[in-house]
Amino acid sequence: MKVRGSLAQTTKKCLNESLNADMLERVAKDIFPEYDLHARTGFPPNIPLTGPVAAGRIVDDAVDEGRYLQLVERLALLDREGFMGRAYRISGLRDLVKGVEAEGYLWDAETGHLMEDPRMRRTPNWGRLIEGEEFRFSLLRMDIVKNSRLVKVHGESAARDAFDDLRGILARVVERRSGRIWSWQGDGALAGFLFGHSTTASVLAGIALLHELFLYDRLHNRIGEPLKVRAAVHTGPLHYREDPREIMKQETVREVIDMESRFTPPGALVISPAVAPTLDRVLLDRFRPVAGDSSRFLAYEVRLGAP
Amino acid sequence: MKILAYLADESVRKLTPLLERARPSDFDLEVLPRSSLGRSGRKKAPETFVYLDAAGLDTERVLELGARLGGFGCLGWGVLDHSGAVEDPARLFFAGARDYVAPGPLRAAAAKSPPPAKGARRTPVFDAERLAAALAAAGFASASGAAAEPAFPGWDKVREGETIAVRFCYAAIGNQRELLERIGETRLYRLREDFASFLIPWAAECGGIMWIREAGGSLLLFPPSDEGMNPILASFRLLLDRVLVGYEVFALETPLSFRFAFHAGRTMWRKPGSTGDVVSEDVNFIFHLGARASPDGVIVVTENSEAMVPPYLRDLFAAAGDYEGRALIASKRFRD
To answer: For B15, B39, B282, B322, which has the most beta carbons within 10 A of its beta carbon?
Structure first.
């Protein structure tokens, strides 16, 4: 996030007025692992730092290193919950949050995060992840079944139109649940989910994708045969990279692609054993073991019976 | 609404101006060469009535192309037979055609003959009644249709006490007995209230209105023809999305299902909340049908509202017996 000078100044003032230097350093350590305020300011360890110096350094570091949003969120948490049983009132916090919101972010009370306002922009890093940072992401992988045959039979133009429609559907179901599409390579896509109940959100997005396609085939499909996909959800550690090719190389991504291509029946959403225990029973019960796979993976499909 | 005509290459120049003059005023006209039918594969044609020029084709070929038109998702298809190529037009209707324009009206229109004498009737090229019937069968209505009801004025413009034609929908949470055991009386009560509130904007998207709220279910009214999303499609989508709706909208940790019953009929109009003196056989019937005779997880539709089922969902409905002397169809059930 690009932080205006005036907003940085307001933040410094807010920190200085609300917390002493020790508490400031404690807050900074929550945001920057191994943060050493004296080393950063150049003061010897035996010299106590004044509030304005500490606040100024921390805010400048947060802005320079892309952790400004985390700083504001930490202050909001401190104001709400205190620390070690002691209450801390952060003066001017409301103005601070307003200033961030003016830059195109929204306060999400559920997750306690400042998130990109989706009406203004949707960036792959939610406007806040830093290159190389590792998180536990939930991944939704989707692949179009026999996409080459569709192009061959129906022509490039008709197939491309259908794939564009599918891309629109996927974007809707993913972004509605705060996910981001990271990669779309002709026949397949990868979406990431990080905040809130990320595994649940990715599974719900996968279910919604199958439902939307069920109706799409009846209402809007112009190629004359159902557009089938295979979808898979898996969760695991991942280093965030701005280059999608660097994301695709990582182990967790390779695992979800393997799940999708080897174990997912056409028209189904499959979840990994790492995802299943994170789901509420009401969702998990909608999944059945994948046939012939020793029940390692569970699958969801739209199935119709008699009236 | 649109009329899409696939004309033989040699007929395009002759028939296009004729069709343009003859089209009903509430339909646009698009003409495509018939030869493009083979090349373009399936064409998306919602809200479109498609005509095929039969010139130079034998009946079998007309039937074959007609079947292809039927897959366009159009409102219906018909045949323009200005050369008299079709030997047995009845076969067209058995094959699913909804209109057949015989050589006579087309030749008369092409001849630019003077208007017929007063009292004499000239058969029009496009028969408004047949088009209206075809549209009604597909869940639409045409202003040009002689049999069509007058346009619905809007709920706020209907006069109190006036008897109006409407489409009734009884909507309820399904499996309420099981839900009562799982979530308890207080939460079930709140869920019913939340569902009824949810239905208000849901119905409004289809031009409908929440009319009577009862503990077990709600009675919604929809205009006689679609104004917005088709209500059966909207219900079908809710049944399809029941897992998502239960979890994301109502925050339920237990499975949720719905029940829908549709019926077309008439009732005296009273504003919602002032319906105590409404006496209507159709209102009684829909309440009985919805509350007593409709299974959970499906959409039940009476025979007189069958036209509400959009053509692209029709194969998902099957005969479901009858209730109080009215034949029913019901949607297939999504399996958990």
So the answer is: B15
Q: pLDDT tens digits for A20-37?
A: 888 898 899 999 988 899
ipTM of the modeled complex? 0.84
Give the single-character DSSP code of A101: H
Considering only CB atoms, which chain A residues are within 8 Å of B331?
A: 307
Query: In whole angstroms, what is the distance from residue B263 CA to residue B168 CA?
Result: 5
Model pLDDT for residues A68-82, shown as the tens digit of each residue: 999 999 999 999 888
Q: Which amino acid type is present at position A135? A: F
Encoded tokens for A118: 């989706």
Burial of B157: CB neighbours in 10 Å, binned 0-12, 13-18, 19+: exposed
Task: Specify the amino acid at residue B328.
Answer: L
Q: State the DSSP code for B270.
A: -
First to last CA, chain B: 38
- Residue in A204, A281, A304 nearest the CB of B332: A304
CA dihedral A280, A284, A285, A288 (to 10 degrees): -170
pLDDT at position B116 is 47
Q: Which domains does chain B have, with CATH numbers?
A: 2-144 (3.40.50.2300), 155-331 (3.30.70.1230)
Query: What per-residue string of b and e applies to B31-54 under the rule 16 or more CB within 10 Å gives b?
Result: beebeebeeeebbebeebbbbbbb
* Closest approach of A204 to chain B, Cα-based (Å): 7
pTM of the full structure: 0.73
Assign B248 to helix, strand or coil: helix
Contact A38, A25 (CB under 8 A): no
Distance CA B27, CA A18 (A): 70
Q: Is B321 an interface residue toward A (CB < 8 Å)?
A: no
> How far is residue B125's CA from residue B134's CA, in Å, rounded to a whole number?
15
Q: Could you tell me if B307 and B149 are in contact, meaning their C-beta atoms sit under 8 angstroms apart? A: no
pLDDT at A64: 92
pLDDT at A213: 96
d(CA A261, CA A120): 35
Say if residues A179 and A123 touch (Cβ distance below 8 Å).
Answer: no
| Torsion angles phi and psi, residue B125, rounded to 5 | -65, -55
Distance from CA of A158 to the nearest CA of B (A): 9
Asked if the C-beta of A224 comes within 8 angstroms of chain B's C-beta atoms, the answer is: yes
**Up-side HSE of residue A176: CA atoms within 13 Å toward CB?**
15
Instruction: Say how far apart CA B289 and CA B293 lie, in whole Å.
Output: 5
Chain A contact set for B333 (CB, 8 A): 304-307
DSSP string, A36-99: -HHHHHT--TTSPPPHHHHHHHHHHHHHHTT-HHHHHHHHHHHHHH-BTTB----TTHHHHHHH
Strand, helix or coil at B211?
Answer: strand
